[in-house]
Recover the amino acids of this structure.
Protein backbone atom coordinates (compact mmCIF):
# COMPACT_ATOMS: atom_id res chain seq x y z
CA UNK A 1 0.00 0.00 0.00
CA UNK A 2 1.37 3.42 -0.99
CA UNK A 3 1.97 6.08 1.67
CA UNK A 4 -0.77 8.68 2.02
CA UNK A 5 1.60 11.45 1.06
CA UNK A 6 2.31 9.72 -2.21
CA UNK A 7 -1.42 9.33 -2.94
CA UNK A 8 -2.11 12.95 -2.17
CA UNK A 9 0.76 13.96 -4.36
CA UNK A 10 -0.65 11.93 -7.23
CA UNK A 11 -4.07 13.49 -6.86
CA UNK A 12 -2.58 16.95 -6.68
CA UNK A 13 -0.52 16.26 -9.78
CA UNK A 14 -3.58 15.05 -11.69
CA UNK A 15 -5.55 18.11 -10.67
CA UNK A 16 -2.72 20.37 -11.70
CA UNK A 17 -2.39 18.65 -15.08
CA UNK A 18 -6.12 18.92 -15.67
CA UNK A 19 -6.08 22.61 -14.90
CA UNK A 20 -3.11 23.20 -17.15
CA UNK A 21 -4.69 21.15 -19.93
CA UNK A 22 -7.87 23.17 -19.68
CA UNK A 23 -5.88 26.39 -19.84
CA UNK A 24 -3.90 25.06 -22.78
CA UNK A 25 -7.10 24.61 -24.76
CA UNK A 26 -7.96 28.29 -24.29
CA UNK A 27 -6.92 31.03 -26.67
CA UNK A 28 -3.23 32.02 -26.51
CA UNK A 29 -2.67 29.84 -23.44
CA UNK A 30 -4.24 32.01 -20.73
CA UNK A 31 -1.65 30.86 -18.21
CA UNK A 32 1.07 32.56 -20.21
CA UNK A 33 2.71 29.38 -21.50
CA UNK A 34 4.22 29.53 -24.95
CA UNK A 35 4.23 25.76 -25.40
CA UNK A 36 1.16 23.55 -25.77
CA UNK A 37 1.04 21.47 -22.57
CA UNK A 38 0.23 18.41 -24.67
CA UNK A 39 3.68 18.62 -26.24
CA UNK A 40 5.47 18.20 -22.88
CA UNK A 41 6.98 14.85 -21.94
CA UNK A 42 4.81 14.64 -18.81
CA UNK A 43 1.54 14.83 -20.72
CA UNK A 44 2.68 12.74 -23.68
CA UNK A 45 3.37 9.88 -21.29
CA UNK A 46 -0.10 10.12 -19.70
CA UNK A 47 -3.41 8.67 -20.84
CA UNK A 48 -5.92 11.22 -22.14
CA UNK A 49 -8.50 10.31 -19.53
CA UNK A 50 -6.11 11.10 -16.70
CA UNK A 51 -7.09 14.71 -17.44
CA UNK A 52 -10.20 14.46 -19.62
CA UNK A 53 -12.36 11.87 -17.92
CA UNK A 54 -14.98 14.48 -17.09
CA UNK A 55 -15.20 15.64 -20.73
CA UNK A 56 -15.41 12.04 -21.94
CA UNK A 57 -18.19 11.20 -19.47
CA UNK A 58 -20.16 14.37 -20.23
CA UNK A 59 -20.11 14.03 -24.06
CA UNK A 60 -23.60 13.54 -25.57
CA UNK A 61 -23.14 14.14 -29.31
CA UNK A 62 -22.24 11.40 -29.58
CA UNK A 63 -22.44 9.69 -26.17
CA UNK A 64 -18.94 8.41 -25.41
CA UNK A 65 -19.40 6.28 -22.28
CA UNK A 66 -19.40 2.57 -23.07
CA UNK A 67 -19.60 3.39 -26.80
CA UNK A 68 -16.30 4.93 -27.84
CA UNK A 69 -12.74 3.96 -26.95
CA UNK A 70 -10.94 6.23 -24.47
CA UNK A 71 -8.14 7.06 -26.93
CA UNK A 72 -9.26 10.65 -27.41
CA UNK A 73 -6.54 11.33 -30.00
CA UNK A 74 -8.36 9.06 -32.46
CA UNK A 75 -11.03 11.73 -32.97
CA UNK A 76 -9.70 14.96 -31.47
CA UNK A 77 -6.71 17.22 -31.73
CA UNK A 78 -5.05 19.19 -28.97
CA UNK A 79 -6.58 22.40 -30.33
CA UNK A 80 -10.03 21.64 -28.96
CA UNK A 81 -12.79 19.08 -28.68
CA UNK A 82 -15.03 20.62 -31.31
CA UNK A 83 -15.05 20.03 -34.16
CA UNK A 84 -13.91 16.47 -33.83
CA UNK A 85 -11.24 15.52 -36.33
CA UNK A 86 -11.43 11.79 -36.81
CA UNK A 87 -7.88 10.85 -37.69
CA UNK A 88 -8.42 7.23 -38.65
CA UNK A 89 -11.94 6.33 -39.63
CA UNK A 90 -12.25 2.60 -39.44
CA UNK A 91 -13.62 1.77 -42.91
CA UNK A 92 -13.31 4.62 -45.38
CA UNK A 93 -12.16 8.25 -45.34
CA UNK A 94 -14.60 10.87 -44.08
CA UNK A 95 -14.53 13.22 -47.03
CA UNK A 96 -16.81 15.03 -49.48
CA UNK A 97 -20.49 14.22 -48.76
CA UNK A 98 -19.56 12.15 -45.70
CA UNK A 99 -18.08 15.18 -43.94
CA UNK A 100 -21.44 16.85 -43.29
CA UNK A 101 -23.53 14.18 -41.48
CA UNK A 102 -23.17 13.84 -37.72
CA UNK A 103 -21.56 10.69 -36.40
CA UNK A 104 -24.86 9.50 -34.95
CA UNK A 105 -26.50 9.68 -38.36
CA UNK A 106 -24.60 6.51 -39.21
CA UNK A 107 -23.68 5.19 -35.77
CA UNK A 108 -27.21 4.78 -34.51
CA UNK A 109 -26.40 1.81 -32.24
CA UNK A 110 -22.93 2.76 -31.07
CA UNK A 111 -19.35 3.07 -32.24
CA UNK A 112 -17.79 -0.21 -31.29
CA UNK A 113 -16.98 -2.85 -33.87
CA UNK A 114 -20.14 -4.55 -35.08
CA UNK A 115 -22.49 -1.76 -33.97
CA UNK A 116 -22.51 -0.06 -37.37
CA UNK A 117 -22.55 -1.67 -40.82
CA UNK A 118 -19.48 -0.93 -42.92
CA UNK A 119 -21.20 -1.39 -46.29
CA UNK A 120 -23.03 1.29 -48.30
CA UNK A 121 -26.55 0.01 -47.96
CA UNK A 122 -26.23 0.08 -44.17
CA UNK A 123 -26.90 3.84 -44.51
CA UNK A 124 -28.21 4.19 -48.06
CA UNK A 125 -30.82 1.45 -48.40
CA UNK A 126 -33.60 4.06 -48.57
CA UNK A 127 -31.76 5.95 -51.33
CA UNK A 128 -31.36 2.68 -53.22
CA UNK A 129 -35.03 1.75 -52.83
CA UNK A 130 -36.23 5.23 -53.83
CA UNK A 131 -34.13 5.55 -56.99
CA UNK A 132 -36.23 5.80 -60.18
CA UNK A 133 -33.77 6.92 -62.91
CA UNK A 134 -33.01 4.11 -63.21
CA UNK A 135 -35.00 1.93 -60.85
CA UNK A 136 -32.38 0.06 -58.80
CA UNK A 137 -34.30 -3.14 -58.08
CA UNK A 138 -32.01 -5.97 -59.09
CA UNK A 139 -28.87 -3.86 -58.96
CA UNK A 140 -25.89 -4.85 -56.82
CA UNK A 141 -25.94 -3.29 -53.35
CA UNK A 142 -22.34 -2.12 -53.64
CA UNK A 143 -23.04 1.59 -54.32
CA UNK A 144 -19.41 2.41 -55.14
CA UNK A 145 -19.71 0.40 -58.36
CA UNK A 146 -21.65 3.33 -59.83
CA UNK A 147 -21.25 6.24 -57.38
CA UNK A 148 -18.60 8.05 -55.37
CA UNK A 149 -18.75 10.12 -52.19
CA UNK A 150 -19.20 13.42 -54.05
CA UNK A 151 -22.90 12.54 -54.48
CA UNK A 152 -25.20 10.07 -56.18
CA UNK A 153 -25.42 12.21 -59.32
CA UNK A 154 -23.82 12.14 -61.75
CA UNK A 155 -23.20 8.41 -61.60
CA UNK A 156 -19.63 7.25 -62.19
CA UNK A 157 -20.84 4.15 -64.00
CA UNK A 158 -19.03 3.59 -67.30
CA UNK A 159 -21.50 2.48 -69.94
CA UNK A 160 -20.24 -0.19 -72.39
CA UNK A 161 -20.54 2.43 -75.16
CA UNK A 162 -20.63 6.23 -74.83
CA UNK A 163 -23.97 7.70 -73.77
CA UNK A 164 -23.75 10.81 -75.92
CA UNK A 165 -26.07 12.69 -78.23
CA UNK A 166 -29.71 11.64 -77.80
CA UNK A 167 -28.62 8.61 -75.78
CA UNK A 168 -27.55 10.96 -72.98
CA UNK A 169 -31.16 12.03 -72.35
CA UNK A 170 -32.83 8.64 -72.83
CA UNK A 171 -34.20 6.98 -69.70
CA UNK A 172 -32.32 3.79 -68.83
CA UNK A 173 -35.50 1.70 -68.71
CA UNK A 174 -36.23 2.38 -72.40
CA UNK A 175 -33.36 0.05 -73.26
CA UNK A 176 -33.17 -1.93 -70.02
CA UNK A 177 -36.78 -3.08 -69.95
CA UNK A 178 -38.63 -5.33 -67.56
CA UNK A 179 -39.53 -5.33 -63.87
CA UNK A 180 -36.97 -5.48 -62.45
CA UNK A 181 -35.05 -3.91 -65.36
CA UNK A 182 -32.59 -6.10 -67.16
CA UNK A 183 -29.03 -4.79 -67.18
CA UNK A 184 -26.58 -7.65 -67.34
CA UNK A 185 -26.73 -9.20 -70.80
CA UNK A 186 -28.70 -6.37 -72.44
CA UNK A 187 -27.92 -6.48 -76.21
CA UNK A 188 -25.70 -3.66 -77.49
CA UNK A 189 -26.59 -3.84 -81.20
CA UNK A 190 -28.36 -0.77 -82.64
CA UNK A 191 -31.19 -2.82 -84.13
CA UNK A 192 -31.96 -4.35 -80.72
CA UNK A 193 -33.45 -0.99 -79.73
CA UNK A 194 -34.10 0.63 -83.11
CA UNK A 195 -35.57 -2.11 -85.27
CA UNK A 196 -38.94 -0.35 -85.25
CA UNK A 197 -37.31 2.85 -86.50
CA UNK A 198 -35.64 0.94 -89.32
CA UNK A 199 -38.87 -0.84 -90.29
CA UNK A 200 -40.79 2.45 -90.40
CA UNK A 201 -38.20 4.35 -92.48
CA UNK A 202 -39.44 5.27 -95.97
CA UNK A 203 -36.89 7.64 -97.43
CA UNK A 204 -35.20 5.38 -98.15
CA UNK A 205 -36.97 2.13 -97.28
CA UNK A 206 -34.53 0.34 -94.99
CA UNK A 207 -35.64 -3.19 -95.73
CA UNK A 208 -32.55 -5.00 -97.02
CA UNK A 209 -30.12 -2.46 -95.54
CA UNK A 210 -27.54 -3.57 -92.95
CA UNK A 211 -28.68 -3.33 -89.33
CA UNK A 212 -25.51 -1.49 -88.30
CA UNK A 213 -27.22 1.90 -87.90
CA UNK A 214 -23.95 3.70 -87.18
CA UNK A 215 -22.90 3.14 -90.79
CA UNK A 216 -25.32 5.91 -91.79
CA UNK A 217 -26.36 7.67 -88.56
CA UNK A 218 -24.90 9.22 -85.42
CA UNK A 219 -26.17 9.46 -81.85
CA UNK A 220 -27.14 13.10 -82.57
CA UNK A 221 -30.27 11.87 -84.39
CA UNK A 222 -31.50 9.99 -87.43
CA UNK A 223 -31.48 13.10 -89.63
CA UNK A 224 -29.45 14.18 -91.38
CA UNK A 225 -27.84 10.87 -92.23
CA UNK A 226 -24.06 10.80 -91.93
CA UNK A 227 -23.78 8.37 -94.84
CA UNK A 228 -21.23 9.38 -97.46
CA UNK A 229 -22.48 8.37 -100.88
CA UNK A 230 -20.04 6.72 -103.26
CA UNK A 231 -20.25 9.86 -105.38
CA UNK A 232 -21.63 13.28 -104.37
CA UNK A 233 -25.42 13.52 -104.21
CA UNK A 234 -25.81 17.04 -105.59
CA UNK A 235 -27.92 18.89 -108.12
CA UNK A 236 -30.89 16.86 -109.34
CA UNK A 237 -29.60 13.79 -107.49
CA UNK A 238 -30.41 15.39 -104.15
CA UNK A 239 -34.13 15.27 -104.99
CA UNK A 240 -34.19 11.72 -106.29
CA UNK A 241 -35.52 9.08 -103.87
CA UNK A 242 -32.95 6.40 -103.08
CA UNK A 243 -35.26 3.81 -104.60
CA UNK A 244 -35.00 5.68 -107.92
CA UNK A 245 -31.55 4.14 -108.37
CA UNK A 246 -31.65 1.36 -105.81
CA UNK A 247 -34.67 -0.38 -107.28
CA UNK A 248 -36.55 -3.57 -106.51
CA UNK A 249 -39.12 -4.77 -103.96
CA UNK A 250 -36.14 -5.08 -101.61
CA UNK A 251 -33.85 -2.25 -102.71
CA UNK A 252 -30.35 -3.31 -103.69
CA UNK A 253 -27.60 -1.13 -102.27
CA UNK A 254 -24.43 -3.13 -102.18
CA UNK A 255 -23.13 -3.52 -105.72
CA UNK A 256 -25.39 -0.89 -107.32
CA UNK A 257 -23.65 0.43 -110.41
CA UNK A 258 -22.16 3.92 -110.31
CA UNK A 259 -22.23 4.32 -114.11
CA UNK A 260 -24.44 7.22 -115.29
CA UNK A 261 -25.71 5.35 -118.32
CA UNK A 262 -26.94 2.45 -116.21
CA UNK A 263 -29.59 4.76 -114.71
CA UNK A 264 -30.02 7.13 -117.65
CA UNK A 265 -30.01 4.73 -120.61
CA UNK A 266 -33.64 5.44 -121.52
CA UNK A 267 -33.06 9.23 -121.55
CA UNK A 268 -29.91 8.87 -123.65
CA UNK A 269 -31.53 6.53 -126.17
CA UNK A 270 -34.53 8.85 -126.53
CA UNK A 271 -32.40 11.91 -127.36
CA UNK A 272 -32.72 13.03 -131.00
CA UNK A 273 -30.91 16.36 -131.03
CA UNK A 274 -28.29 15.27 -131.15
CA UNK A 275 -28.86 11.58 -131.54
CA UNK A 276 -27.02 9.94 -128.61
CA UNK A 277 -26.99 6.35 -129.82
CA UNK A 278 -23.40 6.57 -131.02
CA UNK A 279 -22.24 8.70 -128.07
CA UNK A 280 -20.03 7.39 -125.30
CA UNK A 281 -21.79 6.53 -122.06
CA UNK A 282 -19.83 9.01 -119.97
CA UNK A 283 -22.68 11.48 -119.43
CA UNK A 284 -20.59 13.87 -117.34
CA UNK A 285 -18.51 14.74 -120.39
CA UNK A 286 -21.35 16.93 -121.63
CA UNK A 287 -23.85 17.26 -118.78
CA UNK A 288 -23.96 18.42 -115.19
CA UNK A 289 -25.94 17.08 -112.23
CA UNK A 290 -28.13 20.21 -112.31
CA UNK A 291 -29.95 18.72 -115.34
CA UNK A 292 -29.61 17.50 -118.90
CA UNK A 293 -30.23 20.91 -120.42
CA UNK A 294 -28.36 22.90 -121.23
CA UNK A 295 -25.39 20.67 -121.96
CA UNK A 296 -22.16 21.94 -120.41
CA UNK A 297 -21.63 24.58 -123.13
CA UNK A 298 -25.25 25.36 -123.94
CA UNK A 299 -26.88 25.31 -127.41
CA UNK A 300 -24.75 25.08 -130.55
CA UNK A 301 -23.88 28.51 -132.15
CA UNK A 302 -25.77 27.96 -135.43
CA UNK A 303 -25.07 31.47 -136.74
CA UNK A 304 -21.33 30.90 -136.51
CA UNK A 305 -21.18 27.27 -137.55
CA UNK A 306 -24.33 25.55 -138.81
CA UNK A 307 -24.93 21.91 -137.99
CA UNK A 308 -28.64 21.75 -138.79
CA UNK A 309 -28.13 22.73 -142.45
CA UNK A 310 -25.36 22.48 -144.99
CA UNK A 311 -22.55 19.96 -145.26
CA UNK A 312 -22.33 19.36 -141.51
CA UNK A 313 -26.01 18.59 -140.97
CA UNK A 314 -26.42 15.18 -139.35
CA UNK A 315 -22.75 14.78 -138.52
CA UNK A 316 -22.44 13.15 -135.06
CA UNK A 317 -21.25 15.66 -132.46
CA UNK A 318 -18.30 13.55 -131.39
CA UNK A 319 -16.90 13.55 -134.96
CA UNK A 320 -16.05 17.22 -134.51
CA UNK A 321 -15.91 17.58 -130.71
CA UNK A 322 -13.27 15.24 -129.33
CA UNK A 323 -14.14 14.75 -125.67
CA UNK A 324 -10.56 13.83 -124.83
CA UNK A 325 -9.61 17.44 -125.64
CA UNK A 326 -11.90 18.87 -122.90
CA UNK A 327 -15.22 20.71 -123.02
CA UNK A 328 -16.69 22.19 -126.19
CA UNK A 329 -16.97 25.75 -124.84
CA UNK A 330 -15.74 28.19 -127.50
CA UNK A 331 -14.93 25.27 -129.78
CA UNK A 332 -12.01 24.29 -127.51
CA UNK A 333 -12.36 20.59 -128.29
CA UNK A 334 -13.36 21.04 -131.95
CA UNK A 335 -11.09 19.03 -134.24
CA UNK A 336 -11.71 19.66 -137.98
CA UNK A 337 -8.76 17.51 -138.96
CA UNK A 338 -10.44 14.60 -137.20
CA UNK A 339 -12.40 14.39 -140.49
CA UNK A 340 -10.50 16.68 -142.85
CA UNK A 341 -6.93 15.56 -142.54
CA UNK A 342 -3.78 15.52 -144.60
CA UNK A 343 -3.68 11.84 -143.83
CA UNK A 344 -6.25 11.67 -146.65
CA UNK A 345 -9.24 10.27 -144.83
CA UNK A 346 -11.12 12.08 -147.64
CA UNK A 347 -8.57 12.21 -150.57
CA UNK A 348 -10.94 13.99 -152.93
CA UNK A 349 -11.10 16.94 -150.56
CA UNK A 350 -7.33 17.18 -150.41
CA UNK A 351 -7.03 16.87 -154.22
CA UNK A 352 -9.47 19.71 -154.70
CA UNK A 353 -7.49 22.00 -152.39
CA UNK A 354 -4.23 21.15 -154.09
CA UNK A 355 -5.48 21.78 -157.63
CA UNK A 356 -8.40 24.20 -157.22
CA UNK A 357 -10.22 23.14 -160.44
CA UNK A 358 -12.38 26.26 -160.07
CA UNK A 359 -9.34 28.19 -161.33
CA UNK A 360 -8.33 29.61 -158.02
CA UNK A 361 -5.10 27.65 -157.97
CA UNK A 362 -3.77 25.55 -155.15
CA UNK A 363 -4.54 26.71 -151.62
CA UNK A 364 -1.36 28.31 -150.35
CA UNK A 365 0.48 26.29 -147.72
CA UNK A 366 -2.12 23.55 -147.77
CA UNK A 367 -0.58 20.64 -145.82
CA UNK A 368 -0.01 17.38 -147.57
CA UNK A 369 0.81 15.57 -144.36
CA UNK A 370 -0.42 16.33 -140.85
CA UNK A 371 -2.19 19.57 -140.02
CA UNK A 372 -3.09 21.53 -136.91
CA UNK A 373 -6.37 20.72 -135.15
CA UNK A 374 -8.46 23.61 -136.43
CA UNK A 375 -6.59 24.31 -139.65
CA UNK A 376 -9.81 24.35 -141.70
CA UNK A 377 -11.33 27.20 -139.66
CA UNK A 378 -8.72 29.63 -140.95
CA UNK A 379 -10.55 29.62 -144.34
CA UNK A 380 -13.95 28.23 -143.34
CA UNK A 381 -14.88 29.90 -140.05
CA UNK A 382 -18.60 29.31 -140.73
CA UNK A 383 -18.21 25.81 -142.10
CA UNK A 384 -19.43 24.77 -145.53
CA UNK A 385 -23.00 25.59 -146.50
Amino acid sequence: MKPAATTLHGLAHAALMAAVAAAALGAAFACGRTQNIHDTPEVKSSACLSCHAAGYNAATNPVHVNKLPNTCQDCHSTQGWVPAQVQNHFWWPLQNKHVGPTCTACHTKGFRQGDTAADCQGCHQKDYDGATKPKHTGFPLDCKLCHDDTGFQPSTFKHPWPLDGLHATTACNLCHAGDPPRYKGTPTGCADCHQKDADAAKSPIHKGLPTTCKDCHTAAGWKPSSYLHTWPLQGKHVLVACSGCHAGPTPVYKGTTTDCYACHKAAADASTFPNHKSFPHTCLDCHQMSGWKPAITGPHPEAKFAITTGKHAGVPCQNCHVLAKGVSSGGANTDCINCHTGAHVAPAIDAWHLSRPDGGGPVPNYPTGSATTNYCLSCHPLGVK
